[in-house]
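Feature request, filed as a ticket because there's no other form

It would be nice if the structure record came with a short human-readable summary line next to the C-alpha cells. Right now we just get the raw output. Example of a typical job, pasted below so the devs can see what we mean:
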Amino acid sequence: DALYYFARMNLSATDGFGYILKGKLAAETYLSLTLYAAPTPAGFAQRVVSEINHLKLKTDENGNYVVHITPQVSNAEMNWLKITKDVTCIITRHYYENDGISAALDPDISSKIRFSIRRNHDKPLPPPAAPDDAEMGRRLDLVAEFVRSHSTDRKQQDPSKAPPWFSFEPNTIGEPALWANQENSKDGGLGAPDIAYGAGYFKLNPGESLEITGRIPNCIFANVVLWNRYLQTLDYVHRNVS
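Raw output as currently delivered:
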C-alpha cells in the first residue's frame, strides 16, 4: 500500500545552488518528500532536515507541482525544502488505500508517479568528463558504503536507546508517537516527521498466530505492515503483509 522513491543529493555538486524537483499528484492518500542528512555521503540517515506533504504542497489545477530544494528560500509562495551540506538523499512516500491489488503491484499506479530533478540554475552545464579509474573506484566505494550502512552495519539496537514507540518485548507494539518528537528521532533513521509510528518484534512458534487488536485514530492514512530489521516489507507478492 506504499511506494517509496530514493535519490542521492549533494549540495556541493550543484555549486551550492541546490535542485528543482517537478512532479504530479497521482491520487495518493498521502504524499510527502523528505530530505535526510548523514555523517558520510552514503551513510545511514541521522536526521530529518526538511519535509513537505500533500497538505502543504502547492499545485496547479492539474496537480503539477514544483519544489525548490535550496539553502535559502527566495519566495514565500513557492514550495521549498531546505538543503544543507550534510543532506545525502531525498525520499518520497506515496501511500494508497486501495481494495484488492496492493499499490506496489498495481502498474497503473506506478506508471502515474513521475519526477524530474535538475540543478537549480539556468546556466548550461558542460557534459561531465568521462569517469576515469579513480572516479569509478570512488563510485563503487559509495555503493559498498551504502549497502553496508543499510544492512550489515545495522547492529542489533540497544533497548535502552530505542525510541519509546518501539517495543523490545515480543508480540507487543510500542505506544505510537510522532517521529517529529525529539526523543523519537535523535538516534537517526528514515522516518517522516508527520507520521506517528508504533512497532515491535513478533515471535511465534510453529502453528501459532498473532492477533492484533486496536483502534485506528482519526488520520489521513493508517496501516499495519510486516517488516524485517533491514526496513524491507516481507513478501507482498505472494502473501498479504499489510
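Something like this underneath would help us a lot:
The mean pLDDT is 90.
The two ends are 7 Å apart (CA to CA).
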